[in-house]
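FYI - complex with glutathione, inputs then prediction.
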Amino acid sequence: MKHYFHPMSRGATTHWMLLELGVEHEQVIVDFTIGENDTPEYRAINPMGKVPALVDGDVVVTETAAICAYLADKFPEQGMAPPPDSVQRGRYYRYLFFPGTTLEPMFTFNQLEGVEYSAQSVGWGDLTRCLAAIEAMTPAQDWAMGEAFTAADVVYGGTLDFAVQFNWLPDPSAKVTDYVKRIKARPRYREAHDASWH
Ligand SMILES: N[C@@H](CCC(=O)N[C@@H](CS)C(=O)NCC(=O)O)C(=O)O
């Protein structure tokens, strides 16, 4: 399978996921800083021209969370996703979808000054609600799904890691910083991110 990525991108997260699973893959660097994402060939893979993307035979997957979810399900023996018919699956989906649909837009809008919006209408509500949800969802010990480290931690924990790193979270609680520390202590995280920027 081919992993289209750039080390200074969200591709570090999907690379980390591939390493956690120990999946052989071809790493294809798409240097978007010099427009390598803006070619007809790459747009045929991802019309958004974004990295990361994964091509597995005839299957094309874009979006960081979708790639992590796809990989976790493709290699069920690695235990990085609860079984599709298990009761844990609902909780697992929440961690996979919440970062991209809610946290990322909130972090972006929170950096902008003078932009007014209705917290009742936008999907991310507001910073206060997001911080309360982060506090409620972040595990005090182990991982998002309990003892098993899963794709939920790669996606949700990876987003919190970015947020702490870039100071998007005002005064993160001890629970959040400890969880991010556990994430960063994982050998495969280090391997993926040492190849990136820290
Ligand atoms: N929603 C996408 C966002 C991907 C994204 O924004 N990638 C950035 C790098 S982190 C990119 O490819 N930027 C190049 C560009 O937009 O031209 C995902 O989760 O994968």
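Strands lie at 2-5, 26-29, 53-56, 59-62. The two ends are 26 Å apart (CA to CA).
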